[in-house]
Amino acid sequence: MKLPVTSLINAICLALFLLHTESTQPPFSCDSENPQTKSFPFCQTTLPIRKRVQDLVSRLTLDEKISQLVNSAPAIPRLGVPPYEWWSEALHGVSGYGYGVSFNGRISSVTSFPQVLLTTATFDSHLWYRIGQAIGKEARAVYNEGQAKGMTFWAPNINIFRDPRWGRGQETPGEDPLVAGNYAVAYVRGLQGDSFQGGKLNDGHLQASACCKHFTAYDLDNWNGVIRFGFNAQVTKQDLADTYQPPFKSCVKEGRASGIMCAYNRVNGVPNCADYNLLTKTARGEWGFHGYITSDCDAVAVIYNVQKYANSPEEAVADVLKAGMDVNCGSFLKNYTKSAVQQKKLPESAIDRALHNLFAVRMRLGLFNGNPNKQLFGNIGPDQVCTQEHQELALEAARNGIVLLKNSAKLLPLSKNKITSLAVIGPNGNNAYVLVGNYEGPPCKSVEILKALQSYVKNTKFHPGCNAVNCTSVAIDDAVNTAKGADYVVLVMGLDQSQEMEERDRLYLTLPGQQESLVTAVAKAAMKPVILVLVCGGPVDVSFAKYNPKIGSILWAGYPGEAGGIALAEIIFGDHNPGGKLPVTWYPKDFIRVPMTDMRMRPEPSSGYPGRTYRFYNGNKVFEFGYGLSYSTYTYEFVSSTTNTLHLNQLLNFPTTTESSNLFRSLSVSNMGTDICEKAKFSAVVGVENSGEVAGKHPLLLFARHDRPSEGNPLKQLVGFQSVSLNSGERTEIEFVISPCEHLSTTTEDGLMVIEEGYRYLMLEDKEYPINIVI
């Protein structure tokens, strides 16, 4: 059959293109050696990206436009545009999840940093930034080596860890909105190639593209028959304003993220991916977002097939594109967008709008500037993956994130010189894979906790104790016999991805199966108090161990990444002084009586609803947010130079307008404006001294509380955190910059931020400092 001339040209272009991309070169457009494409205006790097995108989109047919609206976007051979894969992952290291990255070439492994929740326990934003930098560099190296079909990475996950049963809580920066927002900013700036302070990306060039997910109020996957796809999160304006939205606002406004993922769930009846107010008015309008918005995978199909929000597939397509979504992870838009246009449910201009956002990001990544190996970031190769620097960074993160929860009679650290035998017992003791968590990449190295401990004590025996982490079968007698002959016993228990992960929420907060019985029996039989190590993401009620004198020490190791076993051994034997602090509340086991579907943060005393997270939860706790011990002791004091009265009324350049709330005067933050909020900032100076015998690094967590606690106000609120390193006997002073508009305001039921007159108290460990706000 004779091909038409245009089809023949396309076939030849495709063949030449495929021949070109089969090499180890990364896929790119605007090859300077291709006379056909280099003359296109969209290839002219001297033109603004906006103009280049306009030119490219104007050249596309409707079918070509529609083809680009899905994550696996095909090539457009006649324009020299290669295929592009939007879906790649980099939660705590470049990952093989998604379709964008392959480890079948020269790069077969990458640095596997601790899972995000443990990294957050360092409360060290500089560390978070450096991890983002390392991941972004390794991502670009994988691309430059021709092992990536895209440079858009769907991380970070910055949802609030609202409920301890959530299987994906391990992926998040914990339960505090300020921490989650700061983590987002640091990670995004690092990954995208910005400076720590921001502002370096004014020219638009991206090392890699980060994506804030899952927008918004997404924190339930599969609980008691409630599936994330159909879940309708009922969220108050108050909770949206001061809990669920702030991390995303920070990610966009300060981090300048180039991507957002809209979540599966509905919020107050409206699917996130079809919410114009959320995607366009809030993210783009109020926060100034410039980038692309992707659906979670098959989320558009869910809108029609599961949520029944749209009456037809074409209506679902129209809903999401009109709302401001740009690309569909899945095939739904590929299948139904053309018929939506034909049925006049969707104007072609809505497709053009989405394509402008998509191609702009690809151009910012340098993928339309010719051979990327000759461009900015082109010199990043395999030799910059799994470097000694990156592996040391992974070890540093694990060392500083692991949390010491109990240390009776200073059981830890163990003496390296006096121990002749050690027993390691537990299903997580000899498993390196469990340490990397989910959304993992192949690590540079794998070191089991057992092997790391054996490097300190050669005579170390091991018994798993359980058949698996679920511990449906337990060998107590064998484990007890192993423990009896050892100087000390380390029990390595907890969870793994069979217990908590995406699409798998927990039903219980206790250790799985018969783990508790195993721990108790071994502790009873051991010669000395035992050490309990918990490898897990979400919190576990280990009250039995907390109050058992035969269990001398408890360590939370999270999922500590490729170097986690080494870090843990260093802490147990005193080569590192632990300083991590919990980024989540550890609830008692009876918290499971609270429905996971109840999204309210604030308590309701009349019904017995206890509220959620340290900010509002008024029930008993196993361990508090911010809790963590050290081998050192620290003392704190507020320095007297800190102001104790804020005369906000003197800063106003307009007549004071106040609102009355419970007979107390308050001032609207939005009425104050940016300039006055900036002028109202003040410094709180804290003295800290290491009065212990060993050097240590730990974070200072500064809280504020209202002098009039009420149902609507937090019990306390984190307003700042900094990590400090001190030698034994050393003292230093740390400055915290406090913004009354951000840190000392409260949220009304309508979601408005106000500053109320009266006293606030800054809190640091056992010290408080009063500040009187005058309006």
From TrEMBL:
Residues 698-768 form the Fibronectin type III-like domain. It is found in: Secreted. One of its GO terms (cellular component) is extracellular region. This is Beta-D-xylosidase 7. It comes from the Eukaryota. Coiled coil: none annotated. Belongs to the glycosyl hydrolase 3 family. GO terms for molecular function: hydrolase activity, hydrolyzing O-glycosyl compounds. It comes from Forsythia ovata. Keywords: Glycoprotein, Glycosidase, Hydrolase, Secreted, Signal. The keyword Aminoacyl-tRNA synthetase does not apply. PANTHER family: BETA-D-XYLOSIDASE 5-RELATED, SUGAR HYDROLASE-RELATED. Residues 1-23 form the signal peptide.
